[in-house]
Write a sequence for this structure.
């Protein structure tokens, strides 16, 4: 298995079904923080659901339709990034992220997303990378901005999250806008 160094003692690696127990433990540590804005914390609630979630991404990877990666600091899973969607034919994909509170504020998600976006543009020839985030998730929106994405608009009250309709901001970056070196 491969992993990529993001910083001292920090690695980005493919999350696989065999990591289900570690993934669940991580989710349990950060459930309330992660769940403030994304459904992942409500979907991964036990070992079976953790395994099922990671298996779905293994199937997406096999079909070239998405991928999921973990971020480890000091050997502990603290968050992750993913291609929620990946459509090589259209040249469009969506990047997403999550992080437990102990790892927040260190630039880990920004670094990991740069790796994914760079790979999508340089290795896979994608044309557009999208970022969807709750309008209330200021940290996620700041990552999109740091990545050089452009805010395209707001999908007003487009989905319910924990019983409340949420606005979703849409951001993107196009291949010609991506820096030559990241």
């Amino acid at each position: 298995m491969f992993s990529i160094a993001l910083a001292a003692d920090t690695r980005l690696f493919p999350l696989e079904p065999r990591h289900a127990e570690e993934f669940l433990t991580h989710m349990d540590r950060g459930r309330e923080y992660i769940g403030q804005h994304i459904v992942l914390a409500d979907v991964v609630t036990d070992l079976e659901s953790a395994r099922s979630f990671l298996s779905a991404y293994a199937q997406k990877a096999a079909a070239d339709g998405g991928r999921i990666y973990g971020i480890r600091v000091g050997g502990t899973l603290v968050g992750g990034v993913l291609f929620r969607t990946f459509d090589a034919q259209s040249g469009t994909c969506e990047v997403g992220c999550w992080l437990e509170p102990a790892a927040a504020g260190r630039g880990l998600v920004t670094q990991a997303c740069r790796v994914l976006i760079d790979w999508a543009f340089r290795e896979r020839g994608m044309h557009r990378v999208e970022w969807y985030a709750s309008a209330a998730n200021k940290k996620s929106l700041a990552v999109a901005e740091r990545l050089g994405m452009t805010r395209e608009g707001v999908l007003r009250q487009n989905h319910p999250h924990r019983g409340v309709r949420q606005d979703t901001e849409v951001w993107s970056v196009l291949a010609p806008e991506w820096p030559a070196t990241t």
